[in-house]
Amino acid sequence: MKINKINIKIAYFFMAVMVFSITSCADELAELNEDPNAIQDLPYGLQLTEVQLDAAGGRYEMRRVALGWGISAIQQLADVNIATSLLPGDKYIDFIDYSYALYDRYFIQECKDVVDLVARTADDPEATNYNAMARILKVMSFHKVTDMYGDIPYSEAGQGFISNTWFPAYDRQQDIYTDMLNELEAAAAQLSVSAENPGSQDVIYGGDITKWKKLAYSMMLRLGFRLVKADPAASESWVKKAIAGGVMTNLDDVAKVEHEIGGVTNPIGEAFLVDKFMRLSDTFVSWMQDHNDPRLDILSWVESGGSHQGLPNGLDPTTLASSGPAGGDLLDYSQVNPALVQRDSPSMFITYAEVEFMLAEAIVRGWHTGDAETHYNNGVRAAMANWGFYGVAAPSTGDVDAYLAANPYDAANALEVIGEQYWAATFLNPWEGFSNWRRVEFPVLTPVNYTGNATGGTIPRRMKYPIVEFSVNGDNVNAAIANQGPNEYTTRVWWDKN
Fold it and tell me: Mind telling me which Pfam families this protein's record contains (predicted)?
């Protein structure tokens, strides 16, 4: 569903006219006249639309953090620039202003909108579904931020205009995850087909309550698996609860926002519109070539007309010219197919393919019954079909059948093959791709060790807090560092265990 973004940043609009009336005795003030057409309350549906569109993000944080760091750190994109370091995650260069862009943008805009919607609808019996949807959206947004930074403001975040809490404390990620999972469980139970429905103002599912329940439990499945190394018992419990609740079952359940030119545009599309230097990583292209993957012809476009060729991570213009597999001309290296990164391309939050791969993993771990191979195959088929949402022809059934025959599920290396397919399936969803790779560390990647890098030649594990936090909220950010570890790219967040 496509919709123009409505400017609803001003929550209330009051208009009053002071009228002076003159009597024969004396001048006196009259009562204020109230405009019957003034907006006394912001409709829940309009704010729900705003929150959903905000959740897709903007070019600022998508370009700097998701693409600049996340997708290049897991070697799906590459870049040769040094002076501007358009993809600092390619060489692990310390471009801290890129690193904190998500934090910067989120707590200024997206956070306060979703927190306000949850608060406004909490005690209104007519807003049952609005509140449940807002709670799910809040989890979807906050988990993206905490996965990138670790400990962050959570319980007091967005409370400035609600309770005058302008310097929020940082919550431990462990506590954030506990609350987010509880929120998903409560929101799923709260959703009701008999309560008021937002209908078309819900731009993700059009008010389909069944799909919202599936989204809540699918998010619970994702978050439950994040805990697998940090708290295996809790991970197992939440994964089982999510599956029992009912997760996504087909492509129609995919959680996404459609975009349109002239309205709210796709932030990845905006980034590619202005950046002509990003290329597909040689790691990613070679993996698809080694597996004879039909997605390669969908994802890769070589401007010079040559064959698909990924750009190795960690090169600069000099080393590209001397050792680049296709020489020193960037036009000979694979770009992302422009058809997939348009301003009106969809934004994906969580897909059916991801859910199928997680179900396969749950079976491998003994947390779910069924056939892991079947779910693995379902995941591969869904991941390939998912590109149809971008307006391109997805691989045919025959091509996918041939791919699975040549690359069958390998029970002896189950977590590895599932992890690799999940990595491929989350291309162009850098937030999830980077986070899940840190959880499973498949595929096995060879780090780069570019001169002067900020990690000692290891793949980054988190982003840095903004410098300004140490000036305006120093006590709280320093308390987070004391709990979590140094404000460095190599410090692991709570769930990211060795």
Answer: SusD-like_2
